[in-house]
């Protein structure tokens, strides 16, 4: 697919090869980042990462393509200099969320601007080796191969992502623009994570090191390690923890499962809140409130039980193995649990 990218496209998708080509044509040198003229770019990239650390959210502002491409590059250099796996994952997820917004916008374009969709197809094809086609049957719907769909949708727990709940015809799944792009969010984030890992800059300019040091000082302290070996947890809990570690945005039902399970095996509020630190939308105050609510320390002062295996199966959160045979609740897995004083089913 040969599509000519405009400058505005490069600003929105600075991770495409064309953006790197653009940079090589400008004879940009890493030490240029120490120049006062580029100070605003370094600060812009640094502020973007600060926002990701504090609020767990991407910055969606859009500047000229030169500024955006450089901000993207400087952001990566700062991340490399900080050298924190967790922050790198968070940054990649935020970049993926940012791209997601633009991709959805472009997929929804109609009329004269509909050729923007070709650009989205290019992003899917070039980066993710995945074909998407505009549906001839349904307006503003897109088709992806069932195999491509299944490869990605297994990451989602919600019922709506189960193939049985999708419109399927002739080996293709129909998706709306939001769903089409949501399907690849973690893949895009993983791809960026891989690229950052492979990047090997000759050196890190002084201004970048300075910003890295400032940002390192506001990183949250490493989450407390829970004293259970992961193998002591039931598969549903291990799966949710793995998803969290991968920076996936767990659905509410999975968060309730995780928090109530940890409460049931005697973890304290601090330990449980820290589990969610890796969530892209992490907000310490809100997480604490929610965990305290589930623990019965807020609102109705009723402590919530861990959802049953049947409910978790129904919510797509069960990943049973042979060790789960006969269980009706995850708390029965492997070890005795604390009893509740006030209980309510969820
Ligand atoms: S059977 Fe129960 S404990 Fe096992 S994975 Fe499923 S929900 Fe979890």
Helical proportion, percent range: 40-55%
The share of residues in extended strands comes to under 5%
Distance between the termini: 50 Å
**What's the total helix number?**
15
Count of DSSP strands: 4
What's the overall geometry? globular
Q: What value does the Rg take, in angstroms?
A: 23 Å
The hetero compounds bound to this protein are: iron/sulfur cluster
Question: For the residues shown, what is the average pLDDT?
Answer: 84
Could you name the ranges where pLDDT drops below 50 across 5 or more consecutive residues? 336-346
How do the helices and strands follow one another from N- to C-terminus?
HHHHHHEEHEEHHHHHHHH
Structural class: mainly alpha
Which strand order do you get reading across the main beta sheet?
1-2-4-3
Q: Biggest β-sheet, characterized?
A: 4 strands, antiparallel
């Amino acid at each position: 697919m040969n599509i000519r990218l405009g400058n505005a496209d490069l600003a929105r998708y600075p991770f495409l090869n064309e953006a790197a080509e653009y940079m090589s044509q400008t004879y940009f040198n890493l030490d240029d980042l120490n120049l006062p003229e580029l100070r605003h770019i370094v600060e812009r990239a640094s502020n973007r990462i600060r926002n990701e650390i504090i609020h767990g959210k991407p910055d969606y502002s859009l500047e000229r393509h030169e500024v955006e491409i450089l901000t993207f590059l400087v952001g990566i250099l700062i991340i490399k200099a900080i050298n924190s796996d967790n922050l790198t994952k968070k940054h990649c997820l935020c970049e993926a969320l940012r791209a997601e917004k633009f991709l959805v916008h472009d997929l929804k374009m109609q009329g004269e601007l509909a050729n923007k969709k070709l650009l989205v197809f290019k992003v899917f094809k070039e980066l993710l080796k995945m074909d998407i086609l505009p549906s001839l049957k349904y307006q503003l719907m897109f088709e992806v191969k069932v195999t491509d769909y299944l490869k990605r949708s297994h990451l989602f727990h919600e019922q709506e992502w189960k193939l049985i709940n999708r419109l399927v015809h002739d080996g293709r799944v129909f998706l709306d623009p939001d769903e089409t792009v949501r399907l690849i969010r973690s893949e895009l984030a993983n791809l960026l994570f891989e690229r950052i890992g492979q990047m090997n800059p000759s050196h890190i300019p002084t201004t970048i090191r300075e910003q890295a040091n400032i940002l390192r000082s506001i990183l949250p302290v490493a989450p407390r390690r829970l004293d259970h070996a992961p193998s002591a947890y039931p598969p549903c809990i291990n799966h949710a923890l793995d998803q969290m570690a991968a920076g996936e945005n767990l659905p509410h039902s999975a968060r309730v499962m995780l928090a109530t399970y940890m409460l049931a095996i005697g973890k304290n509020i601090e330990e449980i809140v820290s589990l969610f630190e890796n969530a892209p939308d992490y907000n310490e105050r809100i997480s604490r409130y929610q965990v305290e609510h589930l623990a019965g320390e807020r609102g109705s002062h009723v402590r919530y039980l861990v959802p049953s295996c049947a409910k978790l199966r129904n919510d797509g959160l069960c990943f049973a193995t042979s060790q789960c045979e006969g269980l009706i609740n995850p708390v029965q897995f492997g070890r005795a649990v604390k009893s509740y004083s006030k209980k309510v089913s969820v």
